[in-house]
Amino acid sequence: MLRLFQRNRQQERKSTEQAVKPSRERWFGRIAGLLRSPRLDEAVWDEIEEILISSDVGVETSLRIVGRLKEQVNSGQLDSPGAVTDALKQALTSDLSSDFEPFLPVDDGTAKPYVILMVGVNGVGKTTSIGKLAHHFTESGKKVLLGAADTFRAAAAEQLEILGDRVGVDVIRHAAGADPGAVAYDAFQASKARGADVLIIDTAGRLHTKSNLMEELRKIHRVLRRQDPAAPHEVILTLDATTGHNGLAQAKSFRDAVDCTGIFLAKLDGTARGGIVLAIRQELQVPILFIGTGEGMADFAPFDADDFVDALLEPVP
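The structure assignment produced for this chain is given below.
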């Protein structure tokens, strides 16, 4: 098994810790202190609930998690602050975990190019996220090609070309207003001809009506499927962590239209409401694959539920 996405676990943990630092310092770090209280009374539980809800975890999830902890404490199953903290970590990790590995596998020779379709509304950081993935694959020795299938937004292809130049990969594009399906077709054919390992295709995030947008995405999906029955191998939905719950309704439309396989959660370092990660996982039932941890091309990491929860609940001095 050839692993297309090579990992540096030490660097990933460090990046995750840095990304959740605002959330830990403002919200979650306080929970660790509260759980060390000599007596876990209703006032403590109420404050923990308030912290979880305020950090964008969501009301239902927050009440469920705290209610379960209270039951375990009252029944004597948890008899020390450390045990309660471990149980909270286990609950959060369980909500965030999935069977999907947080990196992209590909069998040697069976998927070339490995096609990644990037979807999401305009302004969420989709183009930058594409650049980050392309940069990582290139640094790992893979040949990458980009397809500029967002032909409806002015300067979308130009922005992608700027990123392509920056990370050293070619971009397949057509004139503004061209058929996105035709771009996807040509990008796939170019990838085959040039022996590319990875093809990442940008898509539109806004058309005149939502139904038109979703139909265009389905069309691109069908065009790729005709070139390779397994393509696209990944459909990654880009979300902006700073928008909180506001982006979930739009995200559901993309998920339903093109059967998203994973989420790239951009700009996580730009919000103190890191609980949105749990809300996204619960609401969309799509695994989070990557998190944005900064503005640079190398500033992202594969999502790891254990690393995320450990970093989030690290006590604040």
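Interim note for the steering committee: The CA atoms of residues 29 and 316 lie 5 Å apart. Strands lie at 2-3, 105-106, 114-119, 144-148, 170-172, 198-202, 234-240, 262-266, 288-292, 300-302.
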